[in-house]
Amino acid sequence: MLNLAQRLTFQLSPIMLSLTLSAQAQDAPKDMEHIEVHYKRSSITSTITEDTEKLVEMPGAMGDPLRAVYALPGVVAAGGSMSEPAVRGSSPSDNIFEVDFMPAGYIFHDFGSSIFNRHIIQDFQLYSAGYGAAYSNATGAVFDVTLRNPKYQPLTTTLDFTMFNAGIFLEGQATQNSAFYVSARKSTLPLFFSKGEELEDDDGKPNGVVINDAPDDHDYQGKWLWDINNNNTLTFNFTGAEDSAAAGFNERADLAKKTPEYQGDARFIRDFNSQSLLWDHYHKDFHLKVGVGALAHSGRLEYGKQATLSQGYFEQEKEQQYSYKAQLNYRINAKHRLITDFAYFDNETTYSYDTFQYLCTELDPDCDLKKGIPIQGKQQVDIDSAFVGFTHLWQLSDQLQSEFGIQLQHNDYTDEHFTSPRLALNYYFTDASTITAKYGRYNRMQDIEYIIPSVGNPNLRSQVSDHFTLGFEQQLQNEWSWSVEGYYKTMDNLPLAIESSASDAHQLYSNQVEGKAYGIDLLLSKNKTDNWYGWVALSYAKSERTDTRHHITRDYFADTPLVFNAVFHYEINERWEGGFNFTARSGQAYTPIVGVQQNPNYENHFLPIYGEPFSERHDLYHRLDIRFERKTQLFGLDGKLILELMNAYGQKNVSYIDLDYKKVNSIDDLHIKEEEDDFEMRPSIGFSVTF
Question: What span, in angstroms and rounded, lies between the C-alpha atoms of 648 and 635?
């Protein structure tokens, strides 16, 4: 499902404090002016953190702090600049996303940005490896997003306009002890396409792809906060997003020439909606957080609709999940703290399909060549899971701190139990220098298409992974700092597609893939002083997978040995500020095409013959993004003008190859076509006004 969907879209913390200050002395005169300043407990998390603000302002991210994650060490776009992130050699599917303590449907749109308005993010934490017992069902990274609390202020409206989306943000005080905000955004991509328009190749000739509905997305978020009293707050959150695109593939389209069943109309749509209720209780010795949430998530792909085929083909997945979570952070004494986490996820997933059997995993360079028999069906499965986590923080001395955790998890569908230790040691050998060592064992259930009956193998075991990290961090003078961290990951029980000729082919998939990833991340950073800040990140990494059935080890498709990022931001004067982001990384691994073969199902149609999977690399990827902001006014209202130039020198970065099917007329015609990763050069003008 994702393979065709990607083609379609491509072508078209701490406990908070309460404070009261009084200027009246006990023996002061009665007529002396009396001043009291009250801070609500929730007001501390109403402001964006400094580190997240840097990501908002990063060139190339268009004010999107989550999109800026690709400038952090160890993060690469797996499969192209608009793909989801692969972190430290793991698959994008290995990551989990949490928003305000609760699971999220997805946090990245298909067309390059995250689902969050820049005005509502308070903090964003990326846990690349070795994270604690509070997170489950992940073997890669954790993206933990904290949305800020609403501000107690008169109702304020902010309008944002850029070349790629438009949004509205409202925020204000509702009652004496409650406040709210609401955000809604809509993509402007449909303005760049005309319905019925046929796209063109680089040479200006029609390429057979007709726009039925332009690529589009929208999202919304809202938060209502009630400060019940000094010890309790209640928060209601709601969020949602949708991505869609529709196109027609006629006989000139490469996709139809390669596999004619794709000829006709195609549509892809995915969306999610979630609501959650969070209660925070504060005490001098503990903080209790309890959350209840509902998440509805669905995705549908249709293709091959023609006048002679009323239905065409489709795949659809619908998920309804109810989440129940709690965390108790208890301070035993000055040296000991105990954190207890509990979660139960009640998940019902329905999978419907009328398509072909594609036995394919990340080890296969081209899923189109793994086409099997036609299949139809509708299945509903309960994928419930629960975990309990215990973490003990112990300040052994002024220089040594330990964090020992253990997580107990159960998956109902696979009837599996896991006991996963998590350990971290911090050694502060000077006031400014820290050595950190971490270990953790992690697991996640296989993707639904690998374990559902008839389509996959329900007996597949969950994936497991061990993380080891060792790092050093030092704070320097004038807000400079640097850090270096090495990591090593093992991965077991990954899925393998079984060949149709094997004796156990009826099982479809087996747990016969292992993996490992290792590397080192170096970061040199400067916080804002002398009107500027910036950072330089350099990563070396290696990621590979081993097919244990055939004893073959290969580079992972997202393996990226070297990644370099340099970010600079300067406040020119009171009105102007700007900067740049330069990225360079090893070319993406790809599988060479060494020949042409006849399509066995269609006469006069041809398929590629591949060489060694992921054995070659595209040329070095590099790109420069520039951003400037100017504070201004419009009709007396505060505003901001944003100027961005992405891929400033128009670098052509290739990320994908295939046969040039328009030139292939026999098995002797080997013509290769390259597809670029980015737009050649993309300017953007944005404006924000608040009233």
Answer: 33
